[in-house]
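Tutorial handout. Part one gives the primary structure; part two gives the three-dimensional structure as tokens.
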Amino acid sequence: MGAALTAMSIIDARGITHTYGERRALDDFSLSIAGSGVFGLLGPNGSGKSTFITMLAAMETPSQGTLEVFGEAPSARLRGRIGTVFQENALDPLMSVRESLHLAARLFGVNSREIAGRTMELLEAFGLGERAKDPTSTLSGGMRRRLEMARALIHDPALLLLDEPTTGVDPDERKALWEALLSRERGERTILLATNDLAEADTVCDAVAFIRDGHVVAEGTPDELKRGLRHEALRVTWDGPTDEQLAMVESWAGAGEVTQDGDVVHITVDDASVFVPRLFNLAPRAIRAVSIETSSLEDAYFQHVGRRRREPREATA
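Part two.
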């Protein structure tokens, strides 16, 4: 495990703006992360999460603003202190599992006497010890993601960047990956996780930032962000609710935030037992299912980031 991190800001972004042609990927983006633990970046596709990750990995430079990692601008030299797992699989299918880690270790300058031991330690930790000699092309999708995680840790980085590392991974594999990763962490490494999986973030993150349209709209611990929400949350599968119906729901006593995501309407409420019968009276044939839960990070997310019911839907191709 790397040396313990100090109280200094590991990541310090101030007023970053970045464009691709006419599209603004980051817009006055500011965020500071100090110390160890798992920090989540949560936002819809296109919100700027991946752009920020590539900047931290010194693969992009901000058009405006300042970005520091470990107190200095990202650079190729700093990559020795950073491990990265990008969205897309970047493993060589012709290499064996062991060879993939050996190559990464050599590229990052790991002492040759330590490579073999460190490789087997990581493969065992991520449940790949028996596959060490196998070509990576024979691994399942979840196993390849675990191998990429092991590869990102081979040089014992102080900062680990994860860009949607469990996309397309089944629940069992996702659980195995996080258990293997977090069992190795003893509060000495900073992990930055960009994800759309709100349940995953609620489970593993010590703090999160909600990203919308390229800037941070809220940040804090999951408990802090959930504080102030109504006590319960309704997930209502509703065929074609009208603006008038949703406005009426929002006006009812005990209603909090009303947001819509496709055919699911999210409503935070004080008392679901009072609220649900009124919904069925309002739209008895259109409501197909209702689930009642304690307010979650997802509810906080939709309050800050989710598509509000008054926003027109974008046309789909």
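Part three, for discussion. The chain has two domains: 9-225, 228-304. The CA atoms of residues 122 and 150 lie 6 Å apart.
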